[in-house]
Design a protein that fits this description.
The complex is a heterodimer of chains A (473) and B (134). Chain A is of the alpha+beta class. Chain A has helices spanning 35-41, 46-53, 112-115, 119-129, 144-160, 166-170, 188-194, 219-225, 241-258, 279-314, 403-409, 412-421, 431-436, 445-454; strands spanning 8-11, 14-17, 29-31, 63-73, 75-84, 89-90, 102-111, 207-216, 231-238, 274-275, 322-328, 330-335, 338-343, 346-347, 366-369, 377-382, 392-393, 425-427, 458-471. In chain B, helix 1 runs parallel beside helix 2.
């Protein structure tokens, strides 16, 4: 059992398990938490899972857990691990099944008071336009060659086809396209799962919210991001859907079989990994890039349908929705000659970084942190002091209670009633889905964000609160 | 005998399946997974023939369930039983039997190898614990 005594305090927001803790650790394991949170993290397996990731070949400096960590499979959720390209490995489990699950934030030019009379209709139309994809999916079922174009072209392909503006790509991580993508390395099974899911939300914690800017912490950054108090914004949280899940499933299988060939032994099969430079490693990276492109295309398509609903409700002359940013929180990327795995962690590049849009370069990359359903979300900005975390930060609130326990503790109807009392509309097909995602099942987002702010991983720019929640299931 | 039970897990779905032999264990794991998809089923039945080869028994269970999950999602079907025509520790040939689906209530993302445990208790009942990403 791991306990507080196994940790060394580095500062008020950073704690470390030295690599002497277990003989198979190659680097120390670090957790960004407050002292109070540290005591809570032992309630699940997340720290043990983090220690396991410290055994991966080629891992550098230390492995990291963000304050929203919770137990996952293989890697903990909220985990970051960076590997040397020369002798390091890449692990599909370090990205997760939902490749490029991430966030997109759209801003309007309207204040809440302008939109209040239209909110109910807007939420209804958005729900109609953006299906969960768990039923018949979209009416549109793509053929395999169209899926291939999305896998290799990402959001860029959709914008070329008229489903968005050039500006949307400028304001998207990697401009919405990983060039390393090679669709021939993605199985037909994965492509089949993706044929009717472009523009679908999925279920679980995926959601779409119409939100209001509740508080501005940093005026200058907010202005540069185009945010103002009481402004209406729209947040999208989803990923690569069944296509990404199948890519991960396929390549974990490949790597479990290939690992022995490379003499790699790991404490958990779900960490299965191959050298980054091996044929298996390279193929996974190209296939994962396809999954990432599909996710960027998915969020782009959802933004397109949200804009359609926006015009239907507010009229053709309504001021348009602009993209602030789109960022992944489940991905592996080559950065500064390292392969950085982020699973439930967000990239947060600092001011001046060449890979962020020019207009944001003065203040740092926008970071989008969703809260749990019905609670606040945050916009943060990357900081130079985040270098020690490979420029990474948290990704959300983090669960503290299982779905099952949440359902036993509360009822969907009760959650909806409470949200209504706060003036929040909820659109969801299933009351069970609502209960599972009840705010009480999550950590307090304010505490999580406070840690990454104080630790210097990313600074607070704005707090957003929901006006309407639209959930897939 | 219970066919399977749902265990506590903070974020995902953990199932413990039981069986008097390995075939029954695999069938019950399939049932546990399929019922967790909370599907609205249609009247029409569905059958799919599958062949799965893996490096060992735990991997075979994951690959078998992954195959069924793929077929479920690709064809909008759900399978509640499997009839095995071949069953070794590294290979399965089977027919999956189930129903066509109108919509799924839960999006099961994948079957994981994490903490997968297959054992036989007191030389009698087989047990397997499987974690699914949802």
């Amino acid at each position: 059992m791991i306990s507080k005594k196994d940790f060394r305090k580095i500062n008020d927001w950073l704690w470390e398990i030295p690599k002497t803790f277990r003989s198979d650790m190659r680097v120390p394991a670090r957790a960004y938490v407050s002292e109070k949170m540290l005591e809570e993290v032992f309630r699940d397996e997340s720290i043990l899972q983090l220690v396991n990731t410290a055994t991966l070949p080629g891992v550098v400096n230390y492995v990291l857990a963000m304050p929203d960590m919770h137990e996952g499979y293989g890697f903990p959720i909220g985990g970051v691990a960076a590997m040397r390209i020369s002798d390091g490995v890449i692990s599909p489990g370090g990205v997760g099944f939902d490749i490029n699950c991430g966030m997109k934030l759209l801003r309007s030019d309207y204040a809440e008071t302008d939109l209040k009379p239209h909110l109910e209709r807007l939420a209804t139309e958005v729900q109609k336009e953006v299906p969960s994809g768990l039923g018949r999916g979209r009416q549109l079922k793509l053929d395999i060659s169209s899926v291939n174009k999305i896998l290799e072209g990402g959001a860029q392909k959709l914008v070329e086809q008229g489903y968005g503006e050039k500006d949307d790509l400028e304001n998207c991580e990697s401009n919405g396209k990983f060039p390393e993508a090679d669709a021939s390395l993605v199985s037909d099974r994965a492509k089949n799962r993706g044929r009717d899911q472009v523009g679908t939300l999925g279920s679980g914690n995926h959601f779409l919210e119409i939100q209001r800017v509740d508080e501005i912490f940093d005026e200058k950054s907010a202005e540069i991001f185009g945010l103002f108090k009481n402004q209406v914004v729209i947040m999208i949280h989803t990923g690569s859907r069944g296509l990404g899940h199948q890519i991960a499933t396929d390549y974990i299988r490949v790597m479990i079989q290939a690992m022995t060939k490379y003499g790699i032994r790991l404490p958990d099969r779900e960490l299965a990994a191959c050298p980054i430079n091996s044929p298996e490693g390279k193929r996974y990276f190209s296939a994962m890039s396809c999954g990432a492109n599909y996710a960027w295309a998915n969020r782009q398509m959802i933004a397109h349908f949200v804009r359609k609903a926006w015009k239907q409700v507010l009229g053709e002359k309504a001021l348009p929705l602009k993209v602030i940013y789109d960022v992944a929180h489940n991905i592996a990327k080559i950065e500064n000659n390292l392969c950085v795995h982020r699973k439930g962690a967000t990239r947060a590049f600092p001011p001046g970084h060449p890979e962020i849009p020019e207009k944001y370069r003065e203040v740092g990359q926008p970071v989008l942190i969703p809260g749990s359903m019905g609670t606040a979300s945050y916009v943060l900005a990357g900081q130079e002091s985040g270098k020690e975390a490979f420029y990474s930060t948290c990704h959300g609130a983090g669960r503290t209670m299982s779905r099952h326990a949440a359902m036993k503790t509360t009822r969907g109807e009760e959650v909806v009633r409470r949200l209504k009392e706060k003036g929040i509309l909820v659109k969801c097909r299933s009351m069970r889905g609502i209960a599972e995602e009840a705010p009480l099942a999550y950590k307090n987002i304010d505490n999580v964000v406070e840690v990454v702010h104080r630790a210097g991983l990313s600074k607070k720019v704005a707090k957003l609160v929901p006006l309407a929640v639209i959930k897939g299931e | 005998m219970k066919k399977y039970e749902i265990l506590e897990h903070k974020a995902d779905l953990k199932i413990r399946a039981f069986g008097k032999d390995k075939k029954e264990l695999f069938s019950n794991a399939l049932l546990g997974m399929s019922e967790s998809m909370k599907a609205e089923i249609k009247d029409a039945g569905a059958k799919r023939k599958i062949t799965v080869k893996s490096i060992d028994l735990p991997a075979l269970l994951v690959d078998f369930l992954s195959e069924a999950l793929y077929l479920s999602q690709a064809h909008k079907e759900v399978y509640f039983d499997a009839k095995f025509s071949e069953f070794t520790d590294t290979k399965i040939e089977a027919v999956l039997i189930g129903q066509k689906v109108e919509r799924f209530g839960e999006d099961l993302k994948a079957v994981t190898h994490h903490d997968l445990n297959i054992s036989r208790k007191n030389d009698k009942l087989w047990e397997a614990t499987i974690l699914f990403d949802i």
